[in-house]
Each structure stands twice: as C-alpha cells, then as structure tokens.
Amino acid sequence: MPRMLNQRRLLATAIGLLIVTSQLGAGVSEWVLYVPHNVLEISTLPFKRMVRWATGGTRAPASDGVNFGQYEQLADNYGAALRRQAYLEQQLIIAHETIDELAAVRQHINMTSAGNVGGGVGGNVGGVGLVYATVASWSHANGALSITIDRGSRRGVAVGQAVTSGMNLVGRVVGVTPMTATVELVTSPSMKLLARVIPPQPGPVPRETYAEFDNSSDDDDRMTAVVGKDQSVVVGDWAHLFDETWPAEAGGCVIGQVVAVEDFSDDPLLRKRVVIEPMQTLSRLHRVVVLTPLSQVPTGMLE
After folding, report:
1. pTM
2. Residues with Cβ < 8 Å from 262, sequence gap 6 or more?
C-alpha cells in the first residue's frame, strides 16, 4: 500500500511539473527540464560504460564496407601484368634482332646472286630456306669447336648445311637428331676454308687475294693463312667464303676480318702471314640461322 502511494505521488508530481512548465516561457521550461535530464545522464553514465564493456565482446564488429581482399587481388594482378610486360618487351627485342639477322642473310643472298660479292663458286643460291635456331650449348672436345642448336631434321636441318649469324659464317652442321643439330665452328682446328679477301668497301683500285685459312695455332678465335709477299692484304679487309666444298648458298659469307698481317717466320722474304678473326665471338652466340635448300624444309616449318 505505501508503494502504491509513492507511485501516485510521483505521477502527480510529474503531472504538476508538466502543467507548471507549460505555463512558463520556452526558455525557462527548457532549462527546468534540462537540469533533471542532465543529472540523470551523469548519474547513469557508469552503468552505461559497464553495459558497453560487457556486450562489446559479443557484438559484431562494425563493417565499413571495404573489402581488402579485392585490393590484394588487384595488387597481385598488377604485379603479374608488370612481369608479363617485361617478358613481352624482351621477346620484342629478340624479334627485332631476329629480323635484323634474317634481313642481313637475305641481303647477302641477293648480293651473291647478283655477283656483287663474288662468293660461291658456281651454282645458284636462289631458293634458300632460313631456319632460325637458338644455341643450346657449346663444346670444345676432341680438338673441335662446336655448338648445339635446338633445330634438327624435323625442321629440315641436315648434315653439311651452312650456319650463319647475319652475313657472318658460323660453321657447318656435322650431326643431326630430330630435335637438335651439332654445328662445327669455322674456327675449329679441323676446318680449312678457301676465302677471297677484299676491302669491305670497293676502292678506286680493285684488289683481291685468295687464301686458305685454318686454325693451325689452335686459337679459339683466330684463323691464319700464308700468302705471297706481293699480295695486297691490309688490316680491316674482309675474308669471304669462296670454297666449292661448301653449299653454294653460303658462298660470300664473311669468315672474318683481317686483324694482322706479318712476316711468315719460315720464309719472311717471300711470304707473309694473314690473321683473321670472326666479327662475332662464335662461342657466345645465342641465335643462328641455318641455310637450307627449300626442298629440304618441311612445309610450314620455314622461319
């Protein structure tokens, strides 16, 4: 019974307070209502904190709508795109180098066919297939210098064919498997090449010298020949292949450049020694071209 009286008193007090504030001005009534409201907020603040702390572990974290997995995926895709771009740029460089090499071979073939180089001994170099190959390994065994390339009989490569790098003669195919081929380099000690030595650019007075070059000194990079003292050979001249034992399409390819002309020690009064060096380091080549007759290249395999 006393509890009911207290509740009635509180209700009556609240109604009376509402009636009094309704008769006051707006500013006074707001102040009257604000003071107990503020006191109530301050008094209940510790309880609110306890409730928030107690329920914080069970409440789901607020979502800000950001999915970081998407950004990580985008970063991975961007990295992959950069790697792909670098790979394609490298392939583009290789393609340009290949085009330059093949263009040089074509130019050489055209010049030889027209008789401008004076290369091959007889025979027509028309109808030549170009098989592009990558050097897989290099070997110096049994007194022979050789490289292995990644093209074989399935691509029309056969024993005896000439291998070039641009207009420079690299060597001759001496062994073939379906997928690879072995090329003996022109600087190998077993090689003997008849060459025509002429200036790289025609001068007012034509001059030429024919000589047989070999690597009798077992130097990996140089070949020598002995010519008469009266022969006009100077440093900088080019030695072009002029050998009927080689395929006609290789005629006129550059074997090397004259790097030294010196007296021949066994007969210094009548003869001199001519030293040539390939214009490329053959053991460091990455790509070469095999010159093959079109009849030996399988259909669809021309490169």
Report:
1. 0.60
2. 272, 273, 275
